[in-house]
Structure prediction request, 281 residues.
Amino acid sequence: MSENIIHTEAFKDFIAVSCGINVVGGDARFKAIINRMMFDLCGLIEEFAISDEEFWRAVNYLNVLGERKEVALLAAGLGLEHFLDMRADASEAAAGHTGGTPRTIEGPLYVANAPLSQRQARMDDGKDPGEPLWLCGQVTDQHDRPLAGAIVDIWHANTHGCYSFFDPSQPPYNLRRRIETAEDGRYAARSILPSGYGCPLDGPTQALLNHLGRHGNRPAHIHFFVSAPGHRHLTTQINLNGDEWLWDDFAFATREELIADPVNVTDRHIARERDMPVPHT
Ligand code: MBD
Ligand code: FE
Prediction:
């Protein structure tokens, strides 16, 4: 039986050296963070009696995670990204910022510089036989006044749950658009109804989830960045009601206020009532 060494002075002196605590160069905050990380990691190795074999398997796992560019995907799956939202919510509540559309996670699949248009956009290339979807909304400020000139940056998956740039079968920026709001703060997009995302089944994130007894599925959803000069940036999504994964999202992004009910607008009266572009029959 080996004794616990991490609480010994010799061990603390050693990680102080490995973390450059006693040298002049470098960054003090960074050193403190890495030092703490080392202490906790070594404590974990000791507490769980991690074998050398397990250690090197973990090293290999991290290499694969990076190789497959799934670090951010795992961060979403472990709830770390949701944790960042919980922190942001708490600090905004403390600052007295309330109301408005809630934030939820960005996820790992955003691509900047999508085509920009005024007030409306068509997001799909017309080649996916998905169900047509009209997305209509209004950006308002904290006093509920319409905000003109706001940028609504929208991205979502196709009918297979796949995103352009990560799916070579789609053209660049398919299902990704930026729309500038009109004088009345409104914007509208025509797209297709997305399907939910599932983690790559042969990837390292899904492999880890399997060991946790968890799935890697998200409900069908649509991502939004909303920004305007002089205003805080909003990162959010809507989750489509009726999806089997709605309240079982592997990335923990669903929020009650962000659930959208897709309405069938072959009924022109509903379309007009909701100020939606009336679809051609
Ligand atoms: C997604 O589409 C997504 O939004 C998140 C959070 C994780 C993986 C895929
Ligand atoms: Fe997504």
